[in-house]
Amino acid sequence: MSHAITVTDAAETLRRSGDALASAAAAGRVGATALESAAAFRTIAAWTLAPAPRDPRAHVRAAHAEARPYLTRLLDHPADREVGSVMTADLFRRLTRRPGPDAGARAASDPARYTYTPRKVLRRVLDHALDHLNQIDQWRAWRRDGTVPVPTDGWASSTVTLAEDRQPLDAADLAAWLWRIDQTIGLLAQRADGLGEDELDWQPPDGGWPLRRVVHHVSRCEHLYGTALDEAPPVEPSARYERAARLLDERLREAQLRAGDPSILFVNLYGVFYTPETAAQEVRDLEEGLLAEACGAAVR
Fold it and tell me: What are the structural domain ranges in the chain?
């Protein structure tokens, strides 16, 4: 007879997976790149398990209230400090892959890493909010009138660092940036407030994201950008993995305390819903894949 997997089971599964990965690393069968990937999997799962308001409209304001103190502390960092995130272009592609016959196809690797300077954090928060504010308006017109959206190209992603991203940042600059960001997030929240349940769940005819997913996504990503410097991962791969494992373990225990709370949900950076158990299972599966790949390489 099968039984439901509990959060306790999930934590134990992750502990065993982590022990296996650590043993393989100590034996030289798993290298730094694999450890960094595993650390990324665990960090992203931990972010996913931070409880979010179930209502995406409330999530916009809650996420900004959480991220804004980090933005106000950007002057604590040298303007030219550029730190790497656990996120890479490859991970973005994995996390946003559409289901379908080609979903499992192996694409060319793109290890470009997300990096952030103080100004780049501000740029990404603002550009991302503006892009999705525009998307809400276009999706509503698409649903109402059949007007096909026009992509809003022109922003630079987190893998691109512009010359202006390394320019000095003083208190007056930061205040001006924060004013623009506050205004834009406020507009995004107002626009989200005006969405009915049917608009939030409308499925675009091209298979794109419903607005419920979009709004949760833009809210989640403000944490990714805002905390990039204060919570930059350790450079050394083993230390990076150990920190990610501790954070995920803490989040699993916290999630257990919130079990059954109807006001929250667990959603990843790209608006996909999880349970603590499915988040842990995904990490375990990904780590098993890394171990299998390492063992296969060793045999060859």
Answer: 7-97+112-299
Q: Which residues pair with 264 in a beta bridge?
A: 53
User: In 3-state terms, what secondary structure has residue 87?
Assistant: strand
Helix (H) or strand (E) holding 267: strand 264-267
Phi-psi sector, 273: left (phi>0), alpha (psi -120 to 50), beta? beta
> Using CA atoms, how far apart are residues 192 and 199, in angstroms rounded to an integer?
10
Separation CA 222–CA 131 (nearest Å): 13
Q: What is the pLDDT of residues 76-94, one digit of tens each?
A: 999 999 999 999 999 999 8
Q: How far apart are CA 16 and CA 117, in angstroms?
A: 36
Q: What is the pLDDT of residues 157-176, one digit of tens each?
A: 999 999 999 999 999 999 99
Report residue 287: phi and psi, to 5°: -70, -35
Rounded Cα gap, residues 218 and 90, in angstroms: 20
Beta-carbon contacts of 216 under 8 Å, excluding residues fewer than 6 positions away, are 52, 56, 59, 267, 271
182-231: per-residue pLDDT in tens?
999 999 999 999 999 999 999 999 999 999 999 999 999 999 999 999 99
Q: Is 86 helix (H, G, I), strand (E, B) or coil?
A: strand
For residues 180 and 227, give the distance between their C-alpha atoms in angstroms, rounded to a whole number.
19
